[in-house]
Amino acid sequence: MRGQELASSINAASFISLSPNLSRGFKMTSICTHKECFFAGNPQPKENFTNNKNRTNGLNAWCKVCRSNDNKKNKPKWQAYNKKYKQEHKEEIEKYEKEVYKEKRKELLKTWKHQGAYYDT
Q1: Which H helix or E strand runs over 69?
Q2: Backbone angles phi and psi of 97, in degrees to 5
Q3: Which of 22, 72, 105, 114 has the fewest CB atoms lying closer than 10 Å?
Q4: Would the pTM count as exceeding 0.70?
Q5: Are residues 24 and 41 in the same domain?
Q6: β-strands 25-30, 34-36: how paired?
Q7: Residues 71 and 93 grouped into a single domain
Q8: Residues 70, 93: one domain?
Q9: Burial of 49 (0-12, 13-18, 19+ CB in 10 A)
Q10: What is the tens place of the pLDDT at every residue in 6-42?
Q11: Range of the domain at 77
């Protein structure tokens, strides 16, 4: 009964439905077709945003174009950082990779045999 009262008091143009959510009462689903990009600040269709299940509206804050431009702009910076990190921690990385290979060797051999390659077990 409470859900029907809420549904009748809310403007139908701004909300599609009220669906029960046991932990939080009622969850309202908006019919908005646009979202504002956090970086650019301009409203865009929801299709221009990637999904993010951790956010309340299910979409990332930055649109695809802004995220792509930011990634391209910062790519050399992150490549330099990764290269420096790998040089400084070379022994640790090699040790970790050897441990992982030892743990998963049998699974890898099964996969390789299944794919038609022959390796001694």
Answers
A1: helix 64-88
A2: -65, -40
A3: 22
A4: no
A5: no
A6: unpaired
A7: no
A8: no
A9: buried
A10: 444 444 433 344 444 444 444 445 567 888 888 888 8
A11: 34-88
